[in-house]
Amino acid sequence: MQHFLQSFFGSPSFTLQALPKAGSDRGYYRVHFEGQSYIVCASNHIRENECFLYFTEFFHHRHIPVPQIIHIDTSKTMYIVEDVGNTSLLDIVLQEGHTENVKTLYKKSLQQVVNMQTVAGSALDYTRCVGAKQFDDKAVLADLNYFKYYFLDVQQVIYNKADLQEEWKLLSETIGGSNPLTFMYRDFQGRNIFIQKNEPYFID
Question: What is the pTM of this model?
Fold first, then answer.
């Protein structure tokens, strides 16, 4: 990474700060150079990197607020993107509560995700997706079971397992049987929305 950054900046006089990992094995770092800051990502999952870079460029050119890609290593295992700060929408909610400012930020975020999923999403090349190209019945059921394991069971909610599974089977088949109409942003949540100058940016 040092060689990659030195080659890009043309100087070794930068500082590198590792950022906390989230739900993947990608490594994120904040780089400071001559009064500017950048985010560099390192991952050996090249297909995933190519997917991320394609989606990011696609949405950026359609004026969806995503961090701009600045430079990509020839190996496609590292890339530099715009730094949109440290403050997520979740951070603001936890700090302020349900204030008018928070409501405004959510409205802006919802408007942008609607734009992303309709106007911009209509022209995407879905063959570039990694993992799943369509939100089918298996994907729906996987999400429902995730909710069961990490919410219902953790909170010790009482429910009839057989009835729940039967209802979820019907729900997943109904949703999964729908024809794909547009792009779907599945991880729309406060941790993935960063706020800079009172505007939302989608980072993942």
Answer: 0.82
